[in-house]
């Protein structure tokens, strides 16, 4: 049963594709014409012109559109005008979980003027540990390797190397 579910998931997996700059909505139109399931998250934004205000729909992820093609047609997507390539992770087109797409959809249905912020850790960034035995200790990021960080905690005279995310490390300031 699990193998059947995995085969179905791989047959219809979500992927992100890079688009030409400011072509997100045009790419979505081309995908719609071809009957390919896609998602171009749009944000309701109020824009001010010299003579009026207007609510416009802007892509929330600049330069990206999510697609859910059949696996055998996946590489044909690159022929669609405006699509540059897949977003790759570890040498393969990156798959996006269905739950993540649904979360984005739900969030955008409830809120407007949404902004995408990419929080990254860089060396010499002060952080606070928010989980575990060292919770509330503050430290300094020494090195970053993908999603792992080495954090120095001066008060204990130690260094930690751990997977980081919003759950266990908080940027200070």
Automatic annotation (TrEMBL):
Cross-referenced InterPro entries: NGN-like_dom, NGN_dom_sf, NusG-like
Gene Ontology biological process terms in this record: DNA-templated transcription elongation; transcription antitermination
Key words of the record: Transcription, Transcription antitermination, Transcription regulation
Pfam family, one: NusG
Keyword hit for Ribosomal protein: no
Domain NusG-like N-terminal stretches: 11-108
SMART domains: NGN
NCBIfam families on file: antiterm_UpxY
UniProt-recorded name of the protein: UpxY family transcription antiterminator
Organism lineage string: Bacteria, Pseudomonadati, Bacteroidota, Chitinophagia, Chitinophagales
């Amino acid at each position: 049963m699990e193998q059947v579910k995995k085969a179905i998931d791989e047959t219809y997996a979500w992927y992100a594709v890079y688009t030409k700059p400011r072509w997100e909505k045009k790419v979505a139109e081309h995908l719609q014409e071809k009957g390919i399931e896609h998602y171009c998250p749009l944000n309701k934004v109020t824009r001010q012109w010299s003579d009026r205000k207007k609510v416009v729909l802007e892509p929330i992820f600049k330069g990206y559109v999510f697609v859910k093609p059949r696996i055998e047609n996946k590489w044909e997507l690159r022929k669609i005008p405006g699509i540059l390539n897949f977003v790759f992770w570890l040498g393969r087109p990156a798959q996006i979980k269905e739950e993540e797409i649904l979360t984005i959809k739900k969030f955008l249905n409830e809120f407007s003027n949404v902004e995408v912020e990419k929080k990254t850790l860089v060396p010499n960034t002060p952080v606070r540990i928010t989980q575990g035995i060292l919770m509330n200790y503050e430290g300094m990021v020494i090195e970053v390797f993908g999603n792992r960080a080495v954090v120095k905690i001066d008060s204990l005279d130690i260094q930690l190397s751990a997977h980081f995310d919003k759950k266990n490390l908080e940027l200070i300031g």
